[in-house]
Amino acid sequence: AKDEGRNTLRFFDPHMQAAANARAGLQSRLHQALKHAQFELYYQPQVDEIGRIVGAEALLRWNDPVHGLVGPAQFIQLAEETGQIMEIGQWVLQAGMRQQAHWQTQADLRALSLSLNISARQFLQEGFVGELASLLARSGANPERLRLELTESVLLSNVQGVIEIMQQLRTLGLWLSLDDFGTGYSSLGYLKRLPLSELKIDQGFVRGILDNPTDAAIARSIITLADSLQLTVVAEGVETRAHHALLLDQGCRKFQGYLFGRPVPLADFEASVRAQL
Ligand code: C2E
Ligand code: CA
Ligand code: CA
Ligand code: CA
Question: Which of 36, 48, 228, 270 is deepest in the core (most CB within 10 A)?
C-alpha cells in the first residue's frame, strides 16, 4: 500500500508528467524524421601520423523542421529505449554504405575508410548479420573500407554469442572497432578473444592527458595494449596541438578531433580531402 501511494504521487508529479509528455513528443517527431528523410550523416576526418585524412567517422544529425540541427545526444538514448534505433540504425548503414560505394568510383576518395556507429541493441538484434550482408550486396560498398564502431556495452550480453556475431561480420570483410574504450565493461581477458582491428581511446581520457596523471596513464596503457594485441588505436577528441604531440609521443598513430576537423556535411568533407591532394 505504501508503494502504491508512492506511485500515485509520482504519477501526479507535474515534472514527471512533463518529462513523459516530452518523451512521447520526441518519439513521434523521430517517427516523422524517418518518414520525411530528416536525417543526415556528417563526416569527421580521421588522420594518420602525418595529418593526412585517411577516413571519416559518420555522425548522425537530424534536420528537425522546428529545432534545426539536432545532435545524437538529444535522441539516440530515447531511440534505443523505444526500439526506433533499429530503423534509424538501418538508415545509417544504408546511407553510409551508399556513400562509401560512391567513393569507390572516385580516384581521389577511393582509399578513404568510413566508420559507422552501431548501437548495442542493433548489433544484438536477431538477424543483424544477415541484414548487413544484404545491405552490403545492394550498396556495392567495399567492406574492407568500412568499420563498424561498437561500444563495450555489447559485452554485457553473452560474450561467446557476441564473438560469433563479430566473426561473421569479419567473414563479410568488415572491420570492427571498439569505441569509447576504457569507459565500459571489457575485461582484458575478453579483449584478446574479440576479432577487433581497432580501439578508440575515449575522449574523456584524451581531454585529461595534459593535467591528469591518471588519464595520461590510462591513455598510455591503452596504446601499449593495442600495440601488443596488434590493434590500431585512434585517439578521439583531440583538440589541441599539445594533446596531439603527447599522444604521438606515446605511440598513437591515428587521430580524430576538432584540431583536425569537426563533423561536417558530405560536400565539405570531400572538399577538405581534395584540398590536401
Ligand atoms: P562517439 O561515437 O563517441 O562520437 C564522437 C563524438 O565526439 C561526436 O559527437 C563528435 O562530434 C564529438 N567530437 C569529435 N571530436 C571532438 C573534439 O575534438 N572535441 C569534442 N568536445 N567533441 C568531439 P556527436 O556527433 O554529438 O555524437 C555523440 C554520440 O552519438 C556518438 O559518440 C555516438 O555514441 C552517438 N552517435 C552518433 N552517430 C550515431 C549513429 O549513427 N548511430 C548510433 N547508434 N549512435 C550514433
Ligand atoms: Ca563512435
Ligand atoms: Ca567515441
Ligand atoms: Ca562517446
Answer: 270
